[in-house]
Design brief:
This protein is α+β, with helices and mostly antiparallel strands. It is built from six helices and seven strands. A five-stranded mixed beta sheet has the order 2-1-5-3-4, sandwiched between helices. Helix 2 runs antiparallel to helix 3. The longest helix is centred in the middle third of the chain and has 17 residues.
Length: 233
């Protein structure tokens, strides 16, 4: 067993376990995109970043690929980590604002704007489809080609691969395939429709009433943006 500190608490886990796996076990929520249970960790999206070390000798690492060590100190929600995650979400939104998965991440982490040029790509290069095809379907019909900003996913020589079984596994795990609620012709790059707000119903009722859905869904929350607009009228 390996003993280390996780958000100030001393915890134990088996040797070879990744930080992300430990956090999942202890109920600590860490955002991921390229990570998919059952597939080899990739560490490409950089959303699962955590800060390790103490004092002035800390560094940021991807929790899905970094394995715990004896005496390691891990912090999952430092100011540095949260800032880096928000930056990565902005970059992902700039690449593919049509993805519901990415829009939901933006709402969850209170990202309300995109400071980068929006490109409307149909791929965020998370590599889920490539790993699914190779590891689970035992096919390897698609893969990465080129490097840097030219990097993309395609079949060998950009022709139909005889190894492809048309199973649809690549589309099933793709975070960019599920379109945002507003569809492809949305008027804004950042939706924020699911942005969590402070509930005000608790001031009127004995119980928090938004357990059935996203905060504000019931329409009675005074903090809801559209409710404020209605009140102004």
């Amino acid at each position: 067993m390996v003993t280390f500190k996780l958000n100030g608490l001393e915890v134990q886990t088996e040797k070879g376990t990744t930080i992300l796996e430990v956090c999942k076990f202890y109920g600590i929520d860490i955002p991921t995109l390229c990570y998919y249970e059952g597939l080899e960790p990739y560490g490409g999206c950089r959303l699962c970043l955590v800060e390790i070390g103490e004092g002035d000798r800390t560094k940021i690492v991807s929790s899905c690929t970094y394995r715990v060590e004896e005496g390691l100190t891990v912090r999952t929600n430092t100011k540095r980590v949260v800032k880096a995650r928000k930056m990565m979400i902005e970059l992902l939104l700039a690449m593919c604002p049509s993805s519901k998965t990415i829009q939901d991440l933006a709402s969850k982490f209170n990202v309300k704007r995109v400071r980068f040029q929006v490109r409307h790509e149909d791929c965020v290069l998370c590599g889920r489809c490539v790993r699914m095809c190779k590891e689970q379907m035992q096919s390897g019909a698609i893969g990465f080609v080129e490097r840097g900003y030219k990097k993309k996913i395609m079949t060998p020589f950009n022709i139909r691969s005889e190894a492809c079984r048309l199973c649809g596994g690549c589309m099933y795990v793709c975070p960019a395939c599920q379109l945002r609620c507003q569809g492809p012709d949305a008027s804004t790059d950042v939706c924020s429709g699911c942005l969590s707000l402070e509930p005000t119903c608790i001031e009127t009722h004995d119980d928090y009433l938004c357990w059935m859905g996203t905060t504000g869904d019931c329409g009675t929350c005074e903090g809801r943006p559209d409710q404020k607009e209605t009140d102004k009228r």
